[in-house]
Design brief:
four-stranded mixed β-sheet; globular
Length: 417
């Protein structure tokens, strides 16, 4: 007899993949429908060949995503009905019969390793076939493999103590562990964000202080004007791996850095770079980071409370392929499958992120006292990255954390300085 929770799970499972696949198909159909003309904003910037290339890039990524979604769905069902999570737990008991805590800590990493192995060919294909075909990949196979090794090493280095402490809290704090657990995870995320630019990112990229000159002077002057404290301005050798362009802030407090891709500096004017930096500073001045952290903590707290309920529910374990309840198995099951239940709220967080982007754009043009540089930067970045110029509204509302370039430019033009 099929239990009711399995029916609920299968309903959400099917809904999740139908929404994901349906939106991809809807978007690619919409893009193809509008392939006959270039949007007015990009006249004189895109040649028709450039426009068709951006459409082909969107098609390639969409087809790749559809295939990976099908593989992911089939793989998850195989794990559930094949009782993988329960069988793996039994295997650990056989090899470590007298070491409950050690096998509890190692269990999540074993599951993560299985998912990593399954996804590894997909990573290779995307990097060395799709990105290569459209001229973005500049990474050789040695660099790719070294990146993977470094990532695995850091995952173990930071993940092992995090999981160990979390499982200890779950065992010792009993009914109120979820509050301490959520606080631990949020504190860990903040810690990683703080040390990232100084200790972690340099393991993958070379960070060079921005050379003396008018660009550095103008950025420092802007930072002083808006009260933005930073540890320095750095150029990252992004071209070592990709020709995509970007700029971002990394770190927190005294370790916060402004980071510019070398590709951005090479392709954009100082006015355009300053407009992009002002946008990023806008997120700080408008306290978007603090709001996001607060929302993340509330969400994490809610998820950990739900997990605390699931750990007491044998049906949760048996339905998802485990033989008996345990903290370490429940922890893995919950975070492997929680996204399937949470997907209906995705548009809410997407909408909040898009709102923040509009506000940061407004801040940029108010600080720089002109609009055209930011518009030029957005249009150029879209062209350089072969961005989708005509996504379907439902697709962008669900997937895009940033408004489309056309939406942003329209809002910038309408805003009064």
């Amino acid at each position: 007899m099929i239990d009711w929770f399995l029916l609920v799970f299968l309903f959400f499972f099917a809904s999740y993949f139908l929404v994901e696949i349906g939106l991809d198909l809807l978007n690619i159909s919409y893009v193809r429908k509008h392939s006959g003309y270039i949007p007015e904003l990009f006249h004189g910037i895109y040649s028709y060949e450039d426009y068709l290339k951006s459409i082909k890039y969107t098609e390639a990524k969409t087809n790749f995503r559809l295939i990976t979604l099908v593989i992911q769905g089939a793989f998850l069902l195989l794990l559930i009905f094949g009782k993988f999570f329960g069988r793996l737990d039994i295997l650990f008991k056989e090899f470590l019969p007298n070491s409950l805590f050690i096998r509890a800590v190692l269990y999540p990493f074993a599951v993560a390793l299985v998912f990593y192995i399954i996804s590894f060919p997909q990573k290779i294909y995307f990097q060395f076939v799709i990105e290569e075909k459209f001229g973005f990949n500049r990474m050789d196979k040695k660099t790719f493999l070294l990146d993977q090794i470094k990532t695995l090493f850091l995952t173990i280095l930071f993940g092992l103590p995090l999981i160990a402490i979390l499982l200890y809290i779950m065992d010792m704090a009993k009914n109120w562990w979820w509050i301490l657990g959520a606080s631990l995870v949020m504190g860990f995320n903040i810690f990683i964000a703080a040390i990232y630019p100084v200790f972690l990112a340099p393991l993958f990229n070379k960070f060079t202080p921005l050379s003396e000159g008018t660009l550095k002077d103008r950025i420092e002057s802007l930072a002083k004007k808006v009260g933005f404290k930073m540890a320095g301005i750095f150029v990252i050798d992004g071209s070592k791996r990709s020709s995509h362009s970007n700029a971002f802030f990394a770190g927190m407090g005294s370790m916060r850095r402004i980071v510019l891709f070398d590709t951005l500096i090479n392709k954009h004017s100082e006015d355009e770079i300053l407009a992009v930096i002002a946008h990023e500073m806008g997120h700080n001045v408008k306290r978007h980071i603090e709001r996001t952290l607060a929302i993340s903590f509330v969400m994490t707290l809610g998820l950990f409370y739900l997990l605390s309920l699931c750990l007491k529910w044998p049906l949760f374990f048996s339905t998802l392929g485990a033989y008996e309840p345990s903290d370490h198995v429940g922890l893995v099951l919950f975070f492997v499958f929680s996204s399937i239940f949470m997907f209906p709220v995705t548009p809410i967080f997407t909408a909040l992120s898009r709102k923040h982007e509009f506000e940061a754009d407004e801040f940029s043009i108010e600080v720089t006292k002109e609009k055209q540089s930011l518009i030029n930067a957005l249009v150029k970045l879209t062209k350089e990255n072969l961005g989708n110029l005509t996504p379907h509204k439902l697709y962008s509302a669900y997937h895009y954390s940033h408004p489309t370039t056309i939406e942003r430019v329209r809002a910038i033009e309408e805003h009064k300085i």
